[in-house]
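User: My instructor asked us to take a sequence, write out its structure as tokens, and then describe one feature of it. I'm not sure where to start. Here is the sequence I was given:
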Amino acid sequence: MSNINASRLFIASCLALVTTAFAFAIRAGILAEVATQFGLTDTQLGYINQMAILGFPIATIVGGWLYNEFGPKRMVWLAFVTHAIGILMTIFAGDFITLLLSNFFIGFGNGTVEAACNPLVSNMYKNNQTTMLNRFHVWFPGGIFLGALISQFMGPQGMGLAWQVQIGVMLLPLLAYAYLFYGQQFPDRESSGQASLADNLKGIFTPLYLFMILCMVLTANTELSTQQWVERLLGKAGAEPMLVLALVTGLMAVGRFYAGPVIHRLNPVGVLWASAIVATIGIYLMSIATGPMTYVAAVMFAIGVCYFWPTMIGFTAEYIPKSGALGMSLMGGAGMFATGMLQPVVGGWLDQSKVDNAGEMGFEYQGNGSPESIKSFLESIPAESMKQLELMAGQETLVNMSMFPAILVVAFGALWFWSRKK
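Assistant: Let's start with the prediction itself. The structure tokens for your sequence are:
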């Protein structure tokens, strides 16, 4: 690896992850504008989010195999092409179907970045894998932090620019990571020490790996579903949702950058268990907080979810090494797949809560449950009542979502006692 510029490849990987993060942050910030322009319900917005997120696991499933066969170089250029297609299609989208397709391409690019760069970073820094993976993953919350501030500055509360202009900002880190990757030598499969596909499968089909996959489903939804819906969950809680998102992700970025001492002190299993406890408290507090206390609850949530994703990937690399690049890719893919599947459910929770609570306020719903009938019914409710319904819907949905980290408290606690015994 003497001719490999590890620092440049690492920086390029971080910028690729910033592109992924911008996709999450800016999409979260423009949901209300997109809903207004195209006349969409929260359930339909959930399907847009779902397509963006489902592209990720499809890419990681394919990408884990491609990394073993062809190495990371072709993978990063595949990420560039699909990112570019998705961004441009979104900017010029004219209908709901085009938004679904364009967000799928963006999600596929996001997943390809993960499939290429996780094993790339792990291979370049073999003696410090979990710490460097945490530093790499600084740039997911770090990118969301920047993207949230950009969306707040450019959106209706700031300059009032069109949502398409905000999406166009994603082209900046896209072109930057393409420039840094261009002409560079990458580790090949042999020099990186990757196990064969047969060995990867042996590592994957073990009780520990399958247990961690199930946990990844819950850690990913705890972190990402809450962030993706921040505008709809907290929009009427008396706090600026994009500032909440910036606060959360800014704290996460700092925490991940200084992850080394925390991981060495608690070990990965201890970090995961403590994170689950704090995340449960954080989401519950957000479900009851209003006004300035929303920011306090968001700080607790940020501390809880800070180390989830990179530590899950690092645990896989360190404790289940035979699973290799495929194991890391599938771990991330499982988390994103489950998150994608939940998006219409979250949208449905919000819609159903508004309909149910409207009935208690005296507004009788007589529709057939279709998105069109729900949208028509909610539009008929006076603005002040609708504001209260949206606050209640966000709070009730957050209570539902608090069950994910609560289950993890039990699961990671059991894993901690098991690992101590071993």
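For the description part of your assignment, you could build on this observation: The chain has a mean pLDDT of 85. Try explaining in your own words what that tells you about the chain.
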